[in-house]
Amino acid sequence: MELVRLELKNFLSYREGVLDFNGLRMAALVGPNGAGKSSLLDAITWALWGKTSRLDRDQDLLVHRGEKEARVSLTFRLGEALYQVTRTRRRGKGSTLDFQMLAPRRRSLTGSGLRETERLISQTLGIDFETFVNSAFIRQGRADEFTTKTPAERKDVLAEILQLRRWTELEERAKEKIRRIDQELETLRWRIQECEKELAQRPQREADLQKASAEHLARQEEREKAEKAWEELRRDEERAREVQGRLRELQAQRQEVENSLARLEEQIRQQEESLRRWRALLERRAVIEAAWEALQRARRELARMDEASRTALALRERRAELEKQIAVARAQLEGERQRLQREIEAARDRASRLPDLEREAADLRERLSRQPALEQEIRALEERLQTLQAERVERQSENRRLHEEMRDLKARIQAIAQIGAECPTCRRPLPDAERERLRREWEEEGRRRADRYRENQNRLQALEQEQAEAAARLEERRQALSALARFHSRLEQIEGERADILREKERLADLETALREVERRLQEDLIAPEEQAELRRIDEALRDLGYDVEAHHALIQRIRALEEEAQDWPRLQEAEQRVPQEEEALRRLESLYHDSLERRERILRSIGELEQAGQALAERLKALPEAQRRLEEARRAEREARDRLIAAEQRLKILDQLEQERQSLQKEILRLEEEKGLYRDLQLAFSRNGVPAMIIEAILPEIEEEANRILHRLTDGRLTVRFRSQRETKEGNVRETLDILISDEGEERPYENFSGGEKFRVDFAIRLALSRILARRSGTPLRLLVVDEGFGSQDQAGRERLIEALNAIKDEFATILVISHLEEFQDAFPVRIEVRKTAAGSQLHVVR
Question: Which residues pair with 726 in a beta bridge?
Answer without folding.
Answer: 736
